[in-house]
Specification:
This protein has a five-stranded mixed β-sheet with strand order 2-1-3-5-4. The chain is mainly alpha-helical. Strand 4 (about 540-545) and strand 5 form a beta hairpin. The radius of gyration is 26 Å and the shape is globular. The chain has helices at about 1-25, 40-50, 60-70, 75-95, 105-115, 130-145, 155-180, 185-195, 195-200, 210-230, 240-250, 250-265, 270-275, 275-300, 305-315, 320-330, 335-360, 370-390, 400-420, 425-450, 450-470, 485-490, 500-505, 525-530, and strands at about 475-480, 495, 510-515, 540-545, 550-555. It has 24 helices and five strands. Its main location: membrane. Keywords: Cell membrane, Glycosyltransferase, Membrane, Transferase, Transmembrane, Transmembrane helix.
């Protein structure tokens, strides 16, 4: 009893600290925390709450019951709309803290603009998928049609595409979670997902990871439906959704491999072979949908798998498996934040418990529940996503959003089960409320902790790029720099790295500008710069900037 009382005190204290910490972040006092990073108090509080659970009893305070009754009067769709509105509001506010496109964003932006205006696609490579630039081109076209809604340089139009993808994925998450749990618990899943730093950090950016996650989640739903509903034709929908995810982001191949392997392990090969013609037909449709990609890959690389292998080779890893080491080191806190980490850990526990029951059922013992194989599928898929992507590429939270979503869905169900039938509604209401507060706190962390670095770098690159673009006066121009996508977008010129420049033949009549910064990356020293300009007349000028890489030296070859 004394142990449980002590655990109860610890639970209350650390939960209060977690809440106070989020309130401080929302109020703008996150600078008191190292790097604006909140401490994981809830990872201490959660096990303490479990230990003290017998002290709760089954009698819920009347005021809690009245509060839950009030919340139940609000329809689930209203909560969903509210969460989506909050997500859009956070997206809008964060635009002011990172108004310029980052490296990855600029690559896709340059390609999108090249299709609309015929400008160079600086930074583009054959390993990049065409889905996001296609959506971006549509956004730029609509922005022009609306009188420049996207802003003078189109950043707003492209970021609006990112907003649509984010809202779409959040909606899909709600619908999928509602199909597996209930509508109100699905709302909790969505708000917990949105509160995570790993997810919210990328909501304002023009990237393809969030949108691809929504499509992958639909694939998982269709596979589950194919097994759980007798005679279901859900498998026929898998190729279309999987292909859409693939052309949006080639990196989903690892996710799809993990999901496919998990499906076989969870349901067994015989269950899938029983699908018969539906399985064969889905496979044929998938291959047919990949034919354009294979044809293009053979043209560009000489191999049908050349573009996918090229994408893998771009991984910024020190050794094979360092991505997996990263995920092990940051799981679950750095992926989903304080509250999300607790929910993900609960989800992993729930998947393990379901696996034990399934194995016990195979051994002749009773206890397997109707949804246990689905939970095993979800949990196994999540784990394999970490393993497959961790071995194939470097580690980043945005690469494993599917795993985060699946464990969050499992975790919300697990929290409700651990709380017990009487307490499940009040506990989930508290989780949702805390997650709502955490969304606002995480937005502050993103704005003041994560975004200042890229924004400061833009203080160096953007003014120089714009000056070079203005000096070209519409003539063909090429910028050689270690920041080629950003320079391409903000100058309107083509842009390459110094390594690429040494191997290329510059078209006649092109104005070439060699750019080096005081503290820039991937650039030659003074002697190397002089060798590149040897034998050519040139103009040299310096451009002072406020950014972290310092003053720029621009050598324009004539």
């Amino acid at each position: 009893m004394a142990r449980r009382k002590a655990a109860g005190v610890v639970a209350v204290v650390f939960t209060a600290l977690a809440g106070a910490q989020q309130a401080l972040l929302v109020a703008g006092f996150g600078g008191w925390l190292p790097g604006w990073q909140p401490w994981p108090y809830l990872l201490v509080a959660a096990p303490a709450w479990l230990i003290s659970r017998p002290l709760w009893g089954e009698r819920i305070p009347p005021q809690w019951l009245r509060g839950v009754d009030v919340l139940r009067r609000v329809p689930a769709w209203a909560y969903v709309v509210g969460v989506l509105a909050v997500a859009a509001g956070v997206w809008a506010v964060l635009q002011d803290f990172e108004p310029y496109l980052g490296h990855e964003e600029a690559v896709y932006a340059n390609k999108a603009r090249s299709w609309v205006e015929g400008t160079p696609d600086a930074g583009w490579g054959v390993y990049r998928p065409v889905g996001l630039p296609a959506l971006g081109a549509l956004g730029l076209w609509l922005g022009d049609a609306g009188g420049g809604v996207g802003g003078a340089d189109g950043v707003g139009a492209l970021r609006a595409v990112a907003l649509v993808l984010a809202l779409g994925t959040l909606t899909v998450t709600y619908l999928v979670a509602a199909a597996w749990t209930s509508r109100r618990r699905a709302v909790v899943v969505v708000v917990v997902l949105l509160s995570g730093l790993g997810f919210l950090r990328r909501v304002p950016e023009y990237l393809n990871d969030i949108g691809a996650t929504g499509l992958l989640l639909i694939v998982v739903l269709l596979l589950v439906r194919a097994q759980e509903k007798e005679g279901s034709r859900a498998l026929w929908g898998v190729p279309a959704v999987a292909l859409a995810a693939f052309y949006l982001r080639y990196g989903v191949v690892g996710n799809l491999l993990a999901v496919g392997l998990a499906a076989v392990l969870a349901y067994g090969p015989r269950a899938w072979m029983a699908q018969g013609r539906r399985l064969v037909g889905a496979a044929v449709l998938l291959v047919i949908g990949l034919v354009p990609h294979f044809w293009h890959a053979v043209r560009e690389t000489g191999s049908p798998l050349g573009m996918i292998l090229s994408a893998t080779s771009q991984a910024n890893r020190a050794y094979v498996g360092d991505g997996l080491v990263y995920y092990l080191a940051v799981f679950p806190y750095r992926l989903a934040g304080d509250l999300g980490a607790v929910v993900m850990a609960a989800g992993l526990w729930a998947a393990g418990a379901a696996l034990r029951r399934v194995l016990a059922g195979r051994g002749g013992r009773c206890g397997e529940r109707p949804d246990d194989r689905r939970r095993v599928f979800q949990g196994t898929a999540a784990v394999l996503v970490f393993v497959v992507l961790g071995m194939a590429t470097d580690g980043e939270p945005r690469f494993v959003y599917l795993a985060v979503v699946l464990l969050t869905v499992l975790g919300v169900e697990a929290v409700a089960g651990l709380a017990g039938a009487a307490w499940s509604a009040p506990v989930l209401a508290a989780v949702a409320a805390f997650a709502g507060l955490t969304v606002l706190g995480t937005a502050q962390v993103v704005a003041h902790g994560a975004m200042p670095g890229p924004a400061r770098l833009a203080g160096s690159t953007v003014p120089v790029a714009r000056e070079i673009g203005a000096a070209a006066q519409g003539r063909p121009c090429l910028v050689v720099t270690g920041y080629e996508p950003e320079f391409g977008w903000y100058s309107g010129c083509d842009a390459v790295t110094y390594a690429q420049y040494r191997k290329m033949r510059v078209p006649e009549g092109t104005r070439v500008s060699l750019v080096v910064f005081e503290r820039g990356r991937l650039q030659p020293d003074a002697a190397g710069l002089e060798r590149l300009a040897a034998g050519r007349e040139s103009d040299v000028r310096t451009i002072r900037t406020d950014g972290p890489v310092g003053t720029a030296t621009v050598v324009t070859l004539r």
